[in-house]
Design a protein that fits this description.
The complex is a heterodimer of chains A (303) and B (324). Chain A is an alpha+beta fold. The termini of chain B are far apart. The chains are: A alpha+beta (303), B alpha+beta (324).
């Protein structure tokens, strides 16, 4: 259902063009912005080369390697031990690059499941935590019932994390999908992975969801969300007044607040310098296995 | 004239006004008392300008550096002397403890996939300072004298984190100087059995608790950073208040950095707070077999990490469950 809404006619047209070019090799559905990004490519030649330090780009791909900026919780030795443990775990399992808004399939060992294995497909609505505490939440609607599962990224019971569609959304958190129409968070369980051509930047999905009428779980109107289209329909006059009162437009000029919320560049250089070689090695091995992989993926068993 | 004297009278009466005295609502509240440790000697010195010349300052720095080098090169007195056969461990022995620093929390997973929150405790540069035999041990008089301790246990002073001798008082430095050590930032007294005594200068490491089991008790300094009714002066009062946590389980030990992972996040204090650790006295969790006694001898062929048998090391493959 969600797929049908996302496909406008022009998109279908570009998809057809793309299919023709790629010899119709992949039967999976295609990322929407493939055509646009191909045009943009000469302006921004790759994400890597644009920055001065290539290792600093890792902060988007591996955000959990940066510690919590609260100075009360920082300790260099603990952070070092934690990073070493994370790399040890990453040597055992391939944890791919994904963002909030990407669609993932997670296979986890579950002693109570039939076959001792459980697979869940859903959209990543939140990614948070740092170090070994890093976690993400997947959401899907199964049998008209919204389901959310929280997974720890470094949990050793996770057997496989597969990115079915790599993309970003307009917002950092997609908690509003809980109050949106169910079609926006419904994804088929037997979805095929979509393969992006190598070197393309991560596509941005500009879809705007429609919220259900009130009551809501949160006051979405105060959060300045970009991914919601019909928020004004459900507001009363008093909500608009209160939203104006609660606005904090000065915060974007508060440099100290931003500084306290982030890890400074000097610290980041140190951290990435420590883990760069191993992460880069992991990326290379992943690319190799990715090329080798046969295109006919076996049908996943449903848990 | 009369007017001015009236004003005087008014101002003197104003001074007698009692409306600024506050009545405390919670009458059961007792403000925290300042509890100095029993071996208390003033540690911090008032820093003054010594008017030293540049050469003198350099000379002092050189001497300090030499002493530090000697101290770091100090070998454990246990390694060169043969272990005496008479010192045998029995279940009633009390071993020495360690001074550790809390450095944070992170989760570990067990082999059946359960998540455990752990606290990391780092053992920083611990050395035995002095042994006081039971006959000479004469503690400060407290309200309830601990007669049992006084009769049969000696006191072992353990220090952690070497500091610059010029920043501490003469009295505090004298504690260390009399036995030929450099002053330490933290000093703790552990009551030990006479045959568990250690010679001065023995380094203590995390492998002191090498057998990973419920063998450990942590004693923490609790620090309240800001309490509404506490003003600045009484922060010191809280620094010496103690909280005891019994039977803390050790899950993992790193021998290179001397770090212990202990179960739970209930270790008192913030990140960077100190705590004292020693063998547990809980009857069901006490040592059944001999731990490293009197302490673990320094050897080179230690594994980097010790794990509890229930803990899943991160370098092992993914957990999967067998189908029945």
């Amino acid at each position: 259902m969600a797929l049908a809404i996302r496909r406008t006619t022009t998109d279908l047209f570009t998809a057809a063009k793309w299919f023709a070019r790629r010899d119709c090799r992949f039967l999976s559905s295609l990322p929407e912005k493939a055509e646009e990004t191909a045009e943009e490519a000469p302006k921004r030649p790759g994400r890597r080369s644009s920055s001065r330090n290539p290792a600093l780009e890792f902060r988007h791909v591996y955000p959990e390697f940066l510690p919590d900026p609260n100075p009360k919780w920082r300790n260099s030795l603990r952070e070092k031990l934690e990073r070493a443990d994370m790399l040890k775990r990453r040597n055992q399992i391939d944890i791919p690059e994904f963002y909030v808004g990407s669609i993932l399939a997670v296979t986890i060992a579950d002693p109570h499941a039939q076959g001792k294995i459980n697979r869940f497909v859903g959209i990543c609505i939140e990614r948070k935590g740092c170090g070994l505490r890093a976690e993400f939440i997947l959401r899907n609607v199964i049998d008209h019932q919204g389901i959310e599962v929280r997974y720890e990224l470094y949990d050793p019971t996770i057997q496989r994390i597969q990115v079915l569609r790599l993309e970003k959304r307009l917002d950092d958190k997609l908690y509003y999908l809980r109050d949106a129409l169910p079609e926006y968070s419904t994804f088929p369980v037997d979805m095929d992975p979509e393969i992006l051509p190598e070197g393309t930047p991560v596509p941005l999905n500009p879809v705007q969801v429609k919220l259900k009428p009130r009551p809501w779980l949160e006051r979405w109107e105060r959060q300045e969300l970009k991914g919601v289209s019909n928020i004004e329909e459900h507001l009363k006059e008093k909500d608009r007044v209160r939203r104006e009162l609660r606005k904090t437009p000065w915060e974007k000029y508060d440099l100290m607040k931003q500084y306290r919320k982030t890890i400074p560049e000097e610290d980041q250089n140190e951290i990435w310098g420590e883990v760069y070689n191993q992460l880069h090695q992991l990326q290379i091995t992943r690319k190799k296995t990715y090329r080798k992989r046969t295109l006919s993926t076996p049908k996943p068993q449903l848990g | 004239m009369a007017n001015s004297s009236l004003k005087l009278l008014c101002s003197s009466l104003n001074k007698l006004k009692i409306n600024y005295i506050m009545q405390r609502q919670n009458s059961r509240y007792q403000p925290p008392r300042y509890r100095p440790p029993h071996w208390f000697v003033p540690k911090e010195r008032v820093m003054t300008d010594e008017m030293l010349t540049q050469e003198n300052r350099q000379f002092l720095e050189e001497v300090r550096q030499d002493k530090m080098n000697v101290q770091t090169a100090l070998e454990s007195p246990l390694s060169n002397s043969e272990p005496v056969a008479t010192t045998q461990w029995d279940p009633f022995t009390r071993r020495v403890g360690l001074i550790a620093r809390k450095i944070g929390n992170y989760p570990l997973w067990s082999k059946d996939g359960k998540r455990f929150q752990t606290t990391l405790l780092q053992v920083v540069d611990n050395h035995v300072i002095k042994y006081i035999p039971p006959e000479e041990f004469n503690p400060m008089v407290v309200k309830k004298p601990v007669w049992k301790e006084k009769k049969r246990l000696g006191a072992l002073l353990v220090g952690s984190e070497t500091i610059d001798p010029t920043i501490v008082t003469k009295e505090y430095c004298g504690l260390f100087d009399s036995v030929g050590m450099l002053p330490k930032r933290h000093l703790c007294r552990f009551m030990v059995s006479p045959h568990a005594a250690l010679p001065t200068g023995t380094p203590l490491t995390a492998t002191h608790f090498r057998r990973i089991s419920r063998c450990n008790e942590a004693l923490g300094i609790q620090r309240y950073a800001c309490i509404p009714w506490c003003h600045q002066d009484s922060q010191e009062t809280w620094q010496h208040s103690w909280r005891v946590l019994r039977g803390v389980k050790i899950l993992r030990i790193n021998t290179k950095h001397n770090v212990l992972w202990v179960l739970g996040v209930g270790i008192p204090g913030e990140t960077g707070a100190m705590c004292y650790m020693f063998d547990t006295v809980l009857p069901l969790r006490k040592h059944k077999t001999a731990p490293p006694f009197p302490t673990h001898l320094p050897t080179d062929d230690l594994p980097l990490e010790y794990y509890d048998e229930s803990i899943h090391p991160f370098e092992e493959p993914t957990i999967s469950f067998e189908e029945d």
